[in-house]
Amino acid sequence: MATAALKRTSFSKLFDEIGTVDQVGIEERVAKFTTRSIKKSSKVWGLKTAVSMVDLTTLEGKDTPGKVASLCQKARRPSADPDVPPVAAVCIYPFLVKYAARWLADTPIKVASVATSFPSGQSPLPLRLEEVRTAVADGADEIDMVINRGLFLAGEFTAVQDEISAVVEACGDATLKVILEVSELDTYDNVRAASFLAMQAIRAGDFIKTSTGKASGSATLANTQVMIEAIRDFYLATGVAIGMKPAGGIRNAKQALHYLVAVKETLGDAWLNSTRYRFGASSLLNDLLRQIEKEKTGAYQAPYNFTEAAESY
Amino acid sequence: MARIPVTKTPKVYVGGQFIRSESGRVFPVRAAGSGKREAGLLGNIPQCTRKDLRNSVEAAAKAGPDWAQRTPYNRGQILYRLGEMLESRSEEMADALVVSGASTKAAASKEVAASVDRLIYYAGWSDKYEQVLGNTNPVAGPFFNFTVAEPMGIIGIIADDKFPLLGLLSQIAPVIIAGNTCVCLASQSFPYPAIVLGELLAVSDLPGGVVNILTGFRKELVPTFATHTHIRGLNAVVNQEEKKQLQLGAAESIKRVRARKRDDGIDWAGEKSQSVYEIRDFIEFKTTWHPIGA
């Protein structure tokens, strides 16, 4: 009874402060983003910009140093075309950070590591903090943490923020990305609430991120829109600019362009670069390269002409 | 009270679904002998674009691995069943040919019957062509050396205006029986029979995406058939100029072109239009070595 009451009061207090989300409005708004006609040179610009924002990710139990090596190689030079920029970061498990750090040492590409017992976040706080510190010591430039959804849903916001603050401290100079795991938060209101809780605890230049890619749902235009509107409102209220990283489920270039349209029309040009916007994706890069090649040659391309494409038929 | 007749919206069959062109464009097809009269309008046929072609290639690619991994026997069963279904719907098919002006009533019945026979013919080849086309090769060493037939992948098919059903099926059947999937451009002048064929394919056992049929203008689509690198081969009925276009594009994307001359008056009904060599046109041969006794 007491916990239910705590949950009710803490949520209603927070919503009084930050406001709630108009679900119908958000969904109609994002439906419009998919209708923009982006062709020729603006399309090429969008595709290349998207490449520069990719956090090239591999988060599988079977990842090896060798696989990370080839991923890093691809991150440095995604295409034979010198006009295609390198990606923003390589995102891997903490154990592999030391390898990636070595292979990316002479490049501007960041080494990002998931930490805090990704993807559940359900291990004791000291262990999670130790994981963060180890990853940073091994050479991680960026840490992707998961919030404790259990605490959040129980309404224990202070505890959630304390945990995030502790991770911020453990990060030191490393950039932090806070994964809300939106599919486990159920409502847009909760996504907005969690965004604000995270933004209040992190520093300017840190990110909030939609998903781990390991849960059933992942980034959609709608939940990303809720988060970038939260970023906008937070920026207007405090002047602190927070970055955004949708992750999971963004597999093709067309989707990526839709996300860029959403950023452009909600946050403006200041967010259209890799310091404030990222895509967490593994197969997206291949499709971006494929579409860039299509724009260059005029011929539709087969997916197997691009590395590590799963489809080989 | 007089009943208002319900007319059919012709749609193309892509990826196991009936779709309109992504562009929303259509072109009118009139019934035979109706001239420009409104009453003679047979339907507004989708005028597919290169984007539709791209999407159907994606659909064909998705269907490919499963189709290629089925046993040849199973592919044969499915093609045979398609023949059975065409037989039982032969009247509807013949009507489609007659009403669109592609042929006379008598000729249409013959064309449908020949189409059924053609499907049965290639269904029979399904688990036999590999024995005929493949080989065990003599080598000077303790090895078995096999040449085995494998499907190429996605094949583009550009249909003839004559025999818009029999011609199209004669191009499709040898291609898919070997485990390829295909993207077809139906006859530009008589697209309606291909629309009805799509409706038949949809209720057959053929998995969605194995055969995709587009309608539209050759001028708009032939260049994309030529250059799309994911299309591995072309089985096309084309004129001289289109042939050149296909060959230039195919050279760039390294694909195989089997071009028949459009004005030749191809004898689709004849025995010569069916052979195991039609299957051979769209398979790759893989040679493998295997140590004896290992």
What would you say about this model in short?
The complex is a heterodimer of chains A (313) and B (294). Chain A is α/β, with parallel strands linked by helices and 313 residues long.
State the CATH superfamily name of chain A. Answer: Aldolase class I
Rounded to the nearest angstrom, the radius of gyration of chain B is 20 Å
Q: Predict the CATH topology of chain B.
A: Aldehyde Dehydrogenase, Chain A, domain 1
- CATH uppermost class of chain A: Alpha Beta
Could you describe the 3D structure shown?
The complex is a heterodimer of chains A (313) and B (294). Chain A is an alpha/beta fold. Chain A is 49% helix and 10% strand. Chain A has one domain (20-297): TIM Barrel. In chain A, α6 (125-138) links the parallel β3 (110-114) and β4. In chain A, α3 (40-52) packs antiparallel against α12 and α6 (125-138) runs parallel beside α8 (157-171). The longest helix of chain A has 18 residues, at 221-238. Chain B has a single domain (12-29, 42-291), classed as Aldehyde Dehydrogenase, Chain A, domain 1, CATH 3.40.605. Chain B has helices at 50-69, 72-88, 90-99, 105-125, 129-133, 166-177, 192-202, 218-227, 240-253, 276-280; strands at residues 12-14, 17-19, 26-30, 41-46, 135-136, 143-151, 154-158, 181-185, 211-214, 231-238, 256-261, 283-291. In chain B, the strands form four sheets. A five-stranded parallel beta sheet of chain B has the order 9-8-7-10-11, with helices on both faces. Chain B has a three-stranded antiparallel beta sheet with strand order 5-6-12. A two-stranded antiparallel sheet of chain B has the order 1-2. In chain B, α3 (90-99) packs antiparallel against α7 (192-202), α4 packs parallel to α6 (166-177) and α8 packs parallel to α9 (240-253). Chain B is globular. The N and C termini of chain B lie far apart (81 Å). The interface between A and B is medium-sized, with 9 and 18 residues.
